[in-house]
Amino acid sequence: MSGLQVQLRSSSPIRLAAEFDCGAGELVALVGPSGSGKTSMLRAIAGLWTPPDVQGHIRVAGQDWLNTAAGVQLTPQERRAGLVFQHYALFPHMTAEANVALAAGAGWSAGDVQALLSRLGLATLAQRRPAQLSGGQQQRVALARALVRVMPEPEAASSQALAGVLLLDEPFSAVDAPTRQTLYRELAALRQKVSVPMVLVTHDLSEARRLADRVVIVDAGQTLQTGEPARVFASPRNARVAELVGIQNHFAGRFFKDHPGWGRLCWTGAGQGCIELSVVDKNKIDDGTPVTWVLNGEQVDVLADDAVAEPREAGATCLRCQLAEVLPLGEISLCTLIPQDLPEQRITLNLTTRVLDRLKVSAGCGVQLLIAPGALHIMPVREVTV
Amino acid sequence: MDWSALNVSLVLAAWTTLVLLPVGLALARWLAVTCWVGRPFIEALLLLPLLLPPTVIGFYFLVALGQGSILGAWLAQTLGWRLVFTMQGLLLVSVLVNLPFMVQPIQRAFAAVPHSLREAAWVSGLSTWQTFWRIELPLAWPGLLAGMALTVAHTLGEFGVVLMVGGNIAGETRTLSVSLYDKVQGMELQSAHVMALALVGVSLLALTLVLAFDRVGQRGRALQER
After folding, report:
1. What is the pLDDT of residues A287-317, one digit of tens each?
2. Which of A39, A215, A304, B95 is most buried when burial is the number of CB atoms within 10 A of its CB?
């Protein structure tokens, strides 16, 4: 049993229902809005926070760090958690090297610590105090201090199995954008060398998407959905997840079964109107169920108003819209479209300037949207939550 | 210049600081981190010597530990301790009235150490005791120095409680401030001038040191917050 398994439940002082795991060498991102409890989950893993009424377990490489059933609760000192704090929490009165050496176990000689600092590009900065380092450099020192807790000890007699986890609490939020790009690359490079479970807390979706093997969507102390970023972003489990992962085009509707394998999505607005869209029936949703549905803009083709729509894919629906607003944002433009048959609804699409030029359209023009069944993701309105 | 009085003052200041430092350190660290509901009451109790007239403290001291009291009689009989009109008694009361001067700056210094640094030390494998010695104390030392300087200055300047508890025994309990009072009473103004100036000088030096240490502490905090 390798990796990290977390299963926590508590009701006070905050409600917590966390369940996720992270394999050795895997990077899992806990994503959620501020105050969603993702940092609390990280602190619970490190042993810095334990709700008084907690039930569940935290297991690392088969070892219990917390197991309420067995009455096991290790102290932060006994857990091998390398934690990078949001603002680094470097010891201000110590040099970079001393900060790292303090956390290093007996199996780390001074030379080993220096070698690690060199690997992170800190060789010439080892004797500086945190105040004399830039934000990015401080972040690297904090990372080195966390790494010595979880990497195998270079001088250890036997190569013992790794039993640590690397925990990153919004480590990129306090540095400027160019430094962040460099640090992203360094984290990716580091993952080639260190194979411990890594848990990253972030509220930045694109960061999670870029860095993580899997994301865990966290809201109000609950882990709502776990999966590969692309999968979670394309098919959120429920409307709340869709909202949290920043999907703009989510709408209400009703699902009806059609001929075998196919269904009809009836897009309903506030009024009487209805637009029917063909969808694939996966036999997961009953006939006539009210649904929330998501339109994945990346799989929508835009055609000129007078073009002859030739469905390249079976079941694609052609939708006539009016281009209400075009916001140019460099290479892409944020476009707002109004469907002809549901004028109070709005579709938001990111279209490249090239596409807009080719279509020769601007705000006020009509266009046609060719919506393939794969661009539609349907969820029952009320997901039974645990 | 009354050299023996200066000597008594300096000895008293040194012992007061020495005895008060560990006591103040323990109290200040505890007050800086505790969430106990009774904390404001303890803090008020420690600040009381700042507000009360020294005569009130001196009076209660005499009532509690004088020869006529049960505790005072017991101490005299079993341990041979006489606390009224002796250096030992003076030291005890001096420690009590100096508590706020030692505890306040140290408590502020410990409270200014971000809690995340303690947590960072714990996850780095340091015990609470190691965290105290290697992280908290080095960061709080400007507060310790400030507390010591204030205690020395305040002990040298204390008058009322010294007169009530210590009396005015030359070479034993007659401090510089008491001697100054004597000289003024005896119209020896030349001598009084010298001693007054000495007290002004020492106090000014101590306060300058306190403020300088405070700046060091503030700079340290500013660095931590960067």
Report:
1. 888 888 888 887 888 888 887 767 666 778 8
2. A215
pLDDT at A159: 53
- HSE, side-chain direction, 13 A CA sphere, residue B59: 5
Helices (H), B34-86: 39-51, 54-65, 70-74
Q: Do residues A76 and B119 lie in contact, with contact meaning Cβ atoms separated by under 8 Å?
A: yes
Instruction: Identify the H or E element spanning A306.
Output: none
For residue range B13-33, what is the model confidence (pLDDT) as tens digits? 999 999 999 999 999 999 999
Q: Which helix (H) or strand (E) holds A255?
A: strand A250-257
Determine the distance from the C-alpha atom of residue A159 to the mean position of all C-alpha atoms in its chain, rounded to a whole number: 34
| Cα(B92)–Cα(B144) distance, integer angstroms | 21
Rounded to two decimals, the pTM is 0.79
User: What tokens does A101 get?
Assistant: 């050496």
Q: Which residues of A touch B (CB under 8 A)?
A: 46-48, 75-77, 79, 81-83, 85, 87, 89-93, 102-103, 105, 129-131, 145, 149
Neighbouring-strand partners of residue A56:
A8
CB A296 within 8 A of CB A375: yes
With a cut of 60, say whether residue B103 has pLDDT above it.
yes
Mapping DSSP to helix (H, G, I), strand (E, B) and coil, where does residue B27 land?
A: helix
Q: Answer yes or no: are the C-beta atoms of A88 and A79 closer than 8 Å.
A: no
Q: What is the maximum alpha-carbon separation in chain A?
A: 76
Residue A309 has what DSSP assignment?
Answer: P
In this complex, the residue of B117, B122, B220 whose CB is nearest that of residue A76 is B122
CB atoms within 10 A of CB B41: 10
Question: Of the given ranges (A56-70, A307-321, A329-343, B143-157), which has the lowest mean pLDDT?
Answer: A307-321
pLDDT at A385: 46
SS3 of residue B57 by DSSP: helix
pLDDT band at A384 (very low <50, low <70, confident <90, very high): very low
Rounded to a whole number, what is the distance in Å from the CA of A83 to chain B's nearest CA?
Answer: 7
